[in-house]
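ARCHIVE CARD
CATEGORY: sequence design from structure
SOURCE FIELD: tokenized fold
FIELD CONTENT:
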């Protein structure tokens, strides 16, 4: 799951070299006139290129439209953040105390109203299955957002297990706190920590009593994945055999993180190829790691 702004970045990555070479060849053969005007013939020559670009990357344009443009417009019109708007919808449509119904209500909102970067129903199944198979007692989530994945995991935890979830944005954390309590999870089961992961991780043992995690869900900013995994290792917070599930490693991607986990010798890696939350046409993946404690 990723924040708005990914679509243009992804587009620039794909379209950049092609656009540049096209522009530079046109520049050489037809430099702009003194008035700085591009001739209509050259402008016309671009139309097929633009149409091809739009068709090829239509799903990324749609993502940009829904995640950025609609969001900005609604923010101005309502004076609320989109996460607060989603919470209002959930509050009026979901059954309190029923986590599954709350998740489905979020999904309805995301498919029919506005885009949210929850893990979503398809990748959610992978997460749910791993929690079910591993029966972890101590779970750490990095990036709570609205609490979607938090309640998805919490509902499958074995009795006596504890989930710590870390969110740095206080507005998102306020929404998540309400969602988690609406779903019926108390502070003994789910503890929401408001702060940036790089500050919270070093304090997990002493301040929060998290000695070692046997399941980690990484779903915050992708550029933080590698740094935070190494922080977890350095502070001895990973139990041998722990599972780490990292979302969005294909879109928007976390190449340095993937390179590290594949080469450092401390992890067994498996890739779950899937699609971006609420966008079946955009490929994405989740990396499942098993910490061997070696190397
Ligand atoms: C993709 S959303 C998380 C989605 C959530 N896991 C779910 O599936 O419902 C990413 C969230 O991570 C938070 N975040 C990003 N970097 C962070 C960091 N370094 N520490 C804590 N939270 C972070 C953002 O504020 C955002 O709310």
């Amino acid at each position: 799951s990723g924040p708005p702004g990914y679509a243009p970045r992804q587009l620039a990555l794909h379209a950049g070299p092609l656009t540049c070479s096209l522009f530079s060849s046109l520049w050489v053969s037809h430099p702009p006139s003194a008035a700085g005007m591009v001739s209509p013939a050259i402008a016309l020559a671009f139309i097929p290129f633009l149409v091809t670009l739009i068709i090829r990357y239509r799903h990324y344009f749609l993502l940009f439209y829904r995640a950025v443009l609609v969001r900005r417009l609604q923010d101005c019109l309502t004076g609320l953040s989109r996460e607060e708007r989603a919470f209002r919808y959930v509050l009026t449509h979901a059954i309190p105390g029923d986590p599954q119904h709350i998740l489905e209500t979020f999904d309805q909102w995301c498919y029919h109203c506005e885009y949210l970067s929850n893990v979503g129903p398809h990748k959610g199944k992978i997460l749910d299955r791993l929690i079910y198979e591993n029966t972890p007692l101590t779970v750490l989530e990095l990036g709570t957002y609205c609490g979607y994945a938090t309640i998805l995991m919490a509902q499958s935890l074995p009795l006596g297990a504890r989930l710590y979830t870390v969110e740095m944005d206080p507005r998102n954390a306020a929404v998540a706190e309400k969602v988690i309590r609406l779903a019926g999870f108390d502070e003994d089961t789910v503890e929401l920590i408001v702060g940036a992961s790089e500050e919270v991780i070093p304090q997990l043992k002493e301040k929060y009593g998290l000695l070692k995690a046997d399941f980690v869900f990484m779903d915050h900013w992708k550029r933080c994945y590698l740094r935070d995994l190494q922080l977890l290792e350095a502070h001895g917070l990973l139990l041998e055999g722990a599972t780490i599930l990292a979302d969005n490693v294909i879109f928007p991607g976390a190449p340095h993180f993937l390179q590290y986990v594949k080469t450092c010798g401390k992890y067994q890696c498996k890739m779950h190829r899937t699609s971006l939350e609420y966008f079946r046409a955009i490929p994405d993946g989740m990396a499942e790691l098993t910490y061997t404690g070696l190397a």
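CARD ANNOTATION: Residues 6-29 form the longest helix (24 residues). Residues 2-30 have pLDDT under 50 and may be disordered.
SHELF: design records, drawer C
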